[in-house]
Amino acid sequence: MANLDRENRLRHESSVAMSTVSAAATAVPSGKYIPPALRKKLQLSDGGGDESMTSSLAPGRGGGDGVVTGDRSRHATAAAGGDGDSGDGRMSQLLLTSTLMKQIKGLINRLCEDTLKSSVLKLQKLYLDNSRNDTTQCLSSAVLAVCITPALQPDRLQAEHMLLVAALHRLVDTTVGCQFLEVLVNRFHTLHSSSSSSPSPTSAVSSVSAMVRAASSITTAPAASKECDNIVALLAHLYLFKVAHCSLIFDIIRKLLERFNDQDINMLLLLLKICGAEIRKDDPTALKDVVAAVRAMPAQVSGVVDETRMQFMLDALTAVCHNNIRKIPGYDGESLQHRSRVLRGMIPNSVAMTEAQMHITYADLINAQENGRWWVVGSAWAGRSACDSRPPATSTVVSGGGGGGGNPAGSILDSKLLKLARQQHLNTDLRRNIFAVLMTCEDVVDAFQKLLHLGLKGQQQREILHVVLHCCMQEKKFNVFYACLCERLAAYSRDHQVTLRYALWDKLKDIASLSKRQASTVSRLCAHLLMKKSLTLTLLKAVDFSDLDPASVTFFQDLFIHLITAYPPGALLRIVEGSSVPPPLHLPVFLRFVSHQIKKGEIPVPGQKKAKDLSSSLDDVSSACQSYIHSAK
Questions:
Q1: DSSP for residue 372
Q2: Contact of 540 with 529, CB cutoff 8 Å
Q3: Nearest to residue 584, comparing CAs of 619, 536, 552, 549?
Q4: pLDDT for 322-376, tens place per residue?
Q5: SS3 for 404?
Q6: Which residues of 336-348 are buried (b: 16+ CB within 10 A; e: fewer)?
């Protein structure tokens, strides 16, 4: 009897389903064209509940004839048939979306470093088979549900999920990463703005029972939510993987400084732990502004935040500013390098890491609904307001990385630098930008990092040392700043070392065309580079010491006397003995000639050095060079 009732029920359900399908087929013929205006009108005329369910779904795409085809158009075809058919179409679309969501959740749940590459390939296929908007929405929902929780998530889990987003950002489309940034920043803005400050400790309680209730509520209060901390960590990882720009990170830091309670201090420490060293490399000037702003905070927040925690954060921020990576709490540079290699391994060589980096600011993402999204191709955009406008890239470089586009002091500085660059005959934008970096930097480290931040490659990279040598020779006195900068560049890359060697060879071959001041500057520069082992004796390879003009004789006399008198005793001898290449053939003869001139008093001895000691040192170097040449033969 039970089996008979079950069979009757199944027959009834199948007959109802078949009648519904046949009614939908008779109401709307298959392949009927639905104008966009009518489709929108029918969707707006449906019930509020159904509309809310499908408002986030992308509309179906039409075929080449204007006929709606494919699975994606089922909801649009059903929308023209009436209320019942509209519900069936929406249910089919929701079924497709739920299936897509299940597939993405399965990939996210199994995500780790070992499955990262296969997950990226499968998600690429899902992007090809489904609507890009639907796939990105499902992916963002699945990823953020795992990474943004009331408890602080492990750094490795957050980094692996952001690696997935960064890979799709480059392999699928840049709108994938931009949509993640928009969701994260808007959620951070909502949570950070809505979080209320802690209750005042001086609040009075009117009765004993009220005091008891207040005490019980305090003891049973849950711990502070770490959702904002998780969002800040995700944004920091997206910056490390070149999806976001450092300007967004500095906007987040400024947002934290507006309220600046204990939770904001913890988030700032989390940012410094994840990407502190990197933001200093990208924009040291902005970091110094942040340090100055934070140092002015203790007087304003005295008694509101934990002073010990505040001092700990100040020490960490100072360590970042001074590039003291060892004192940054919890910083792990090796993990960052490893994850960057993993990301580069998933990206073809034709895709550059920095080309897909989006220079989107905090205000752009918060005001995207009102002003539009300039990072989406074809999207309407109202433009930035005057207060949010950013200066162009060349202005940023010329002004040393700081200041806005409307800063009059910055414009005066730019005009003075450009005028000075024209006077030095630096007639290209690239040379003028390098010159501006050299003139506006604070020290050698600052100049070195700003020059690397220009991102020059190949032929353009060679211009750096040419401009540095030009500026060095134009100084009235020898400036050791340029020598230290050349030393740092040569140690950083062999390309810079080779460029420096060829540039100095050109100067040594044409010493007669240099003024006395310029020749002395080049002599001091060569001595510094030889002593610091930035260059070897191959620097003298292009010089024929058997045929020197008077200007060259004076130049090399000054060079070798300076090498012996200005540096520790025996330094030049150790350079010759430890060299991997033999010295020039006639160098020993020239050194003996200089020693003979010193003995006769034809060359004045600088400082308190005795002529006999100086001559003896030159003879020792000459003998070492002669031995090296004979052994090389």
A1: B
A2: no
A3: 536
A4: 878 787 888 888 888 899 889 888 887 645 555 678 888 899 899 888 888 888 8
A5: coil
A6: beebbebbeebbe
Are the C-beta atoms of 18 and 10 separated by less than 8 Å? no
In 3D space, the residue among 401, 441, 395 whose CA is nearest the CA of residue 282 turns out to be: 401
Contact by Cβ (8 Å): 501, 495: no
Tally of CA atoms within 13 A in the half-sphere of 115 that contains its CB = 11
Residue 20: CB atoms within 10 A of its CB come to 13
| Contact by Cβ (8 Å): 163, 116 | yes
Question: Contact, 166 vs 238, CB < 8 A?
Answer: yes
Q: What is the pLDDT of residues 407-434, one digit of tens each?
A: 333 333 467 888 888 888 887 888 888 9
In angstroms, the CA 118 to CA 100 distance is 17
The helix, strand and coil proportions of the chain, stated in percent and rounded to the nearest 5, come to 70, 0, 30
The Cα–Cα gap between 629 and 590 comes to 14
Which stretches within 510-586 are classed as H helix?
A: 516-531, 550-565, 571-577
pTM passes above 0.70: no
Q: Find the length of the chain.
A: 633
* Among candidate residues 202, 269, 282, 205, the one with its CA nearest the CA of residue 240: 282
CA within 13 Å, CB half, 236:
26
Residue 412 CA neighbour count, 13 Å, CB half: 3
Closest CA to 478 of 526, 535, 419: 526
> Are 431 and 467 contacting, i.e. CB atoms less than 8 angstroms apart?
yes
The residue written with tokens 């009757």 in the block is 8
Alpha carbon distance 615, 601 (integer Å): 11
Please tell me whether residue 151 adopts helix, strand or coil conformation: coil
Sign of CA dihedral 316, 320, 321, 326: positive
Contact yes or no for 50/86 (Cβ under 8 A) = yes
Q: Is 403 helix (H, G, I), strand (E, B) or coil?
A: coil
- Residues 297 and 314: their CA atoms lie apart, in Å, by 10
H/E run at residue 138: helix 132-147
